[in-house]
Amino acid sequence: MINPLNPPQNITSTLCENRYTHLHAGVDFSTGKKNGLPVLAVMDGEAKQVKITYRGYGKCLYLFHKDGYITVYAHLSKFSEEIEEYLKPHYKKNPYPGIVEIIPPIFYKKGDVIAYSGESGFGFPHLHFELRKGIETLNPIPYFNFSNSSKIFLKKIVIIPEAPYTSINGKFKKVSFKLPLKDEINVKGPFSLGIEAYEFQIGNKRGIQGFDLYLDEKLVSTLYFKGFSYEDYYGIRFILNYLSFGNSIYNLNPPKNNPYNFFKGENYFDLKEGKYKFKVNVKGLSSEKSFEFFIKTSKPLPKPPILKENIFYKSHFFLSGIEGMFYPENINIFKVGGVDYYIGNLKPKEIFKIGPFEIKHKEKFSVPFCFYLTKYENGFLEPKTLQLNMEPKDLGLTKRAEINVNLPELKEKEKVGIYGARGNFYYGNNWEGDKLKAEVFAPDDYVLLEDKIPPEILKAYKKKNKVFVITKDIGSGIPWDGVQVKILGRDYILEYDPDHYKAIGELKDKGKGEIIVKDRAGNKRIKIFHF
């Protein structure tokens, strides 16, 4: 395959990189912070389908090739002239028509211009590229010819306890060690490993391509990002272990129930007393780097300690409280500091109720969870429920979870929606009678908030026949058509870009008019402006 951009550009993000809620499904090419670079067909193919959405991939083109391969080009500013002409009737009905089939398909030779790069959908200027076959997205790196050198950076090795009684250098929690590491690590009890590493090339920091883990010269775990099924799109936490919010490492041991065939090996280590040599070989696009470290193991304490630093912590097989408890088979209640903690295994299709919340996961296996309620104290919006906390945060799941919230006493429901409590991510307000329904990226923390705060209009100006409005909203957010101009009896809908907090639209009229901004909760801000 050829480079899909003209002139050729570097890869800035790779397959399976961290996107917090999901795996990155392709590779990103730099466009030098510019829009409008010609996008080329990487090989002969037919344009059979486009997808045009407000967020996500924005303007996206699908080329179908022989042997069942499909290449995907996303975040485009526009398509080729032939495709844009074909789409005109669809644009008149809806600027975001979703999936549009191209009948008959348009054939493109390798190297033909099929579109132009942009920043539609989510993110800033770049080209997202995928290679698919069936329901799988494949790693396209082996199909390209890259000559630029890169460098691997190894930052930390992390020892993760795999039992309530496991200690690492005397600490009963995950412990990080900066690399290179000279001193041996003392571990008592079962453990697994993680690594913080990345690849650097021409100003770009990106994810690694894989690794091999050796124990006393024997290969015990291996990962290489070959590709994955879209059925497992949300399984990012099987690959990454979250040390804290926004801070993650690669698991060197595949967790229990790991769905990916590109990640194989020992789930954890439970070693006899002795001294062991570990070696990790980390692989990038065009470089590799290895390091060694030593772990000394000895017998653990006969019973779990009483933990004072954390109420609980997680490994892949247990969640430990202040009494060092394993997950019970059924959900049990434990009171700590006046808070009730519900700890146990949630079976497939089983619904767990806590306060007004009902939670159900979609996995085929039982999932260990801890649920508890606390007061929400993280924003400007008014909470209508306590905050639902779900632990452990680094638990691997491949599908979204369902949350239903029953609030029959709530009267004004149109302004109340479900939010992610840590980042105020808005999941919507899909009310069915007295019940709000949502699909969420579990496990995380959630709360129902009431948004009565209208958006802010920060700035407005006009250039030639285009009007620009800078506007922000701290709650439910502004939809793509949430900014409107009324002037001389006519209404103009501007297109809102939440990444730049900017709405842009055509406006030929001059004079006094109104700028109206409306958020998803129905709050409205109006400002008089002279155009």
Give me a quick take on this structure:
The protein has 531 residues and is mainly beta. It has 4 domains: 11-143, Glucose Permease (Domain IIA); 151-298, Coagulation Factor XIII, Chain A, domain 1 (Distorted Sandwich); 327-450, Chondroitinase Ac, Chain A, domain 3 (Sandwich); 456-530, Immunoglobulin-like (Sandwich), CATH 2.60.40. The chain contains 2 helices and 46 strands.
Topology summary:
Elements: E1 11-13, E2 27-30, E3 38-40, E4 45-52, E5 59-64, E6 69-79, H1 81-93, E7 98-108, E8 113-117, E9 126-133, E10 136-138, E11 151-161, E12 167-168, E13 175-178, E14 185-188, E15 191-201, E16 204-206, E17 210-215, E18 218-224, E19 227-229, H2 236-239, E20 240-244, E21 247-251, E22 263-265, E23 274-283, E24 288-298, E25 313-314, E26 319-320, E27 332-336, E28 339-346, E29 352-354, E30 357-360, E31 367-374, E32 382-383, E33 387-391, E34 401-406, E35 416-420, E36 426-428, E37 430-432, E38 435-440, E39 445-450, E40 456-463, E41 466-472, E42 483-487, E43 490-497, E44 502-506, E45 512-518, E46 524-530
